[in-house]
Amino acid sequence: MTAGPRRLGFLLLPEFSMMAFVAAVEPFRIANRCAGEPLYEWSLYSVDGMPVAASNGMTLLTDASIGEDASEPTVFVCSGFNHERHTSAAVLQWLKWLAGQGGTLGGVDTGAFVLARAGLLEGRRVTLHWESIPAFEELFPGIETTTALYEIDGRRVTCSGGTATMDLALRFIAADHGPGLAMAVSEQLIYQRIRERSDHQRMSVAARLGVHNPILVNAIEYMSVNVAQPVAVADIAAHCCISQRQLERLFAERLGTSPVGYYLQLRLAHARQLLQETDRSVLEVALACGFGSTASFSRAYRRRFGAPPSRDRSGLAAPVGGAVNDDGSAS
Description:
Blueprint: E1 6-12, H1 18-35, E2 40-46, E3 52-53, E4 59-60, E5 64-65, E6 74-79, H2 89-100, E7 104-109, H3 111-117, E8 125-127, H4 133-139, E9 144-146, E10 150-153, E11 156-159, H5 164-177, H6 179-188, H7 205-209, H8 214-224, H9 233-239, H10 244-255, H11 259-277, H12 282-288, H13 294-305, H14 309-313
Parallel strand pairs: 1-2, 1-6, 2-5, 6-7, 7-11, 8-9
Antiparallel strand pairs: 3-4, 10-11
Helix pairs in contact: 1-5, 1-6, 4-11, 5-6
Pfam family, one: HTH_18
Keywords: DNA-binding, Transcription, Transcription regulation
Domain HTH araC/xylS-type: 217-315
């Protein structure tokens, strides 16, 4: 049990995820109502103390700027996919100061990027939104990442975002005031099961693609873990203990494409994430996704997304175009 209200701070960076933020705060508000007393208090911070617009365009008022000393012993960084654009030297300095005061620091959604840039995640186990994990690992290869919903490693807390922040908040409530209150809050949220830290962020391959053939699922998972150094279709087939012809027929029947075409789409999707979320050069991204040159990479990328890689690097993402041709000749 905690003595007095537990005080929390939330640093809102422009274009933060409103979903992740609200899912974090609402359980604490409901805990206060269920208990009939203020168990939790929170303050919102922005760089300049002014209102901050979320990624959905909605704007929230804040209580203070980062130029002021934070009295909360726990502060979470809430950011979105354009975190790098809004991570200033002042933000990093403030976070370092909080860490120096012995505070607990958390990152919600892509907030782990900000904490890592401040040098505050060395030797820690962290998680973040599944879509951002590849980019994070490219930028910070020395930091251990997981696909858990949230991680609590000493005075560092990271969360994958989305509704996972609700599970993290309920975990705090259970630790502070017992599982009974956490269950009562969960009931109020019409949240039937409080998920464990180790629960998966994503649905299984079978559920995502609507396929249940174990051989096809095995092949796709094998492709997914071999993006940087693509393996031959014959080797994928051997891994699945079937012939290459059988594998090609399976992809055509169930997914309407070839193994080569599907594999290429996986690699290009990974490349797009790296372009949008890291400062790696186009050549470095091409090599990280198994392309031998920028020329072949650019041809395949333009065919898939309708624009060259430089368009996404500038932050002007083009709409997704049609599927890549199945011949895979551009790879």
